[in-house]
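Sequence, structure tokens reproduced for reference:
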Amino acid sequence: MSGAIFSRIAFYPTLFYNILMSKVTSREWYNRIDDNVILGALPLKSWNKTLVEKENVRGIVSLTEDFETKGLVNTQEEWAAVGVEQIKLSTVDYVGTPSQEQINEALTFIDRHQRQENSVYVHCKAGRTRSATVVACYLIQKHGYSPMEAVDFIRAKRPHIWLREAQLESLQEFHKHSRVRKSFTGA
């Protein structure tokens, strides 16, 4: 069975599992990583007011496939109506990892919002793998962290992240070709 087919079959059972875990354990739906970046699961419509008003979210980086968001989260137009810009970087769940181009696009987006002192919500379905990969690259770029330092930093705030070999290889590749950006360091 291909990864894309498996991700579609497993979507609703694993989404409900994630909702259950957020209700019966200490697992949070989202976690603030720093002043500008929040790592989380699908920004369900029930979270809109909190994300916009309390968390100052003005940017959304979605690393989901279209079928994962239909009816559950705002469309780009609905986000825009409440002053939130969204970029979609389609990545297959379980077996997929964001491409280096997608990572760079996400970091450029985060950087632009950071300079405006806005928060960016980076998500996939569970906020554990695809989105955690992008947030780790953000930390590598912003602080000059090694891949494992970035993972450890995130894990201290969101212990249930789950980066597998493909994602760790992506972090290594990004780290190999990255330099700390002045705009991320405040210089």
About this structure: The longest strand covers residues 57-62. Strands lie at 30-32, 37-40, 57-62, 85-88, 119-123. The chain has eight helices and five strands. The two ends are 49 Å apart (CA to CA).
